[in-house]
Amino acid sequence: MSFLQETLHIALAAAPWFVLGLFVAGLIRAFVSVRLVERYMGGHGIGAIARAAVMGAPLPLCSCGAIPTAIAFYRGGAGKGPSTAFLVGTPGIGVDSVAVTYALLGPFMMIARALGAVVTAISTGLLVATTGRRALAPDPHAADAACGCGDSDGCGAEPVPAEGLTATDAAHAPAVRLARGMRYAFGDLLQDIGPWIIAGLLAAGALLAYVPPETIAAYGTGVGAMLLMSIIGVPLYICATAATPVAAAMLLAGVSPGTALVFLLAGPITSMATLGVLQREMGTAAVVRYFIGILITTVGLGLLVDVVVGAGSINVLVQMGEVHELLPAWTEWGALGLLGLIALAPLQQRVRRRLVAAG
Q1: Is the model's pTM score more than 0.70?
Q2: For residue 8, what are the domain limits?
Q3: Does residue 240 contact residue 197 with C-beta atoms inside 8 Å?
């Protein structure tokens, strides 16, 4: 198949599940209280770290978007371990990327990715917690500055709506919150991650169309390949949803499921902005343990997945095909068309404003 055919094939398979993931992300945005997350992140022990990892996992925030929220928790009294676990687990997997992972990679890889993100968050949080208690940074805006997003809703905002509804809003609070959540999911969130998803789809299409499968298969298995994926992935910025089509292309080209999992975990979890903020807030020792925790855990999980796949005779490629066949073609085209219309709306508004100004 040609490059465009491969790209379209992956986009159609992912579109309905991505729409579903955005819808659930909107529900979480609307109804999950940030105070609930803060309550369960209190403390410094393994229980608090595990709770922070689990609570952060479904939230629809990318690596950059998780920074100000995690640092706000840290400065509000959460320990280094729970704050780090939230910072790792939140971008590692989200409801939108879970849905797309199921669509493109199948149920086994979806479960492996979700559990892997939580395990990586807990292990890294435990390592960072060994550096001791806090030493607060003087700059209260360090997280937003390093993120480069300021106070934009898609990056620096809380993962839930702000308090202070008007009297009219209060009378219809659930409906108002739902509307705000959907505007966030299909507006700000889609605009934030949309360019990355398009880039991921194009990369996947190019990988399938132009790179010989035997070349990738020869170098895509084993500890060396996993270490490379993990080392490259730590400073790399790619959101969890956008990484999924690239991993699907790797699997189709012959990369082992474990190696693909390492890429899925290490790439979205962190970025250079995360490392910079972590160093400023918690110190160099915390950054070193953070890096080691992600490196060792992701590679270990990759090796474990390959062992499980081999021992259980799990055919990931067959699962990928079975999921794709679950939905009729009209749902795939309809979802892709809907996403396209929503994504083009801001462009249409800009054109309309310019025409009005010119007239």
Answers
A1: yes
A2: 3-352
A3: no
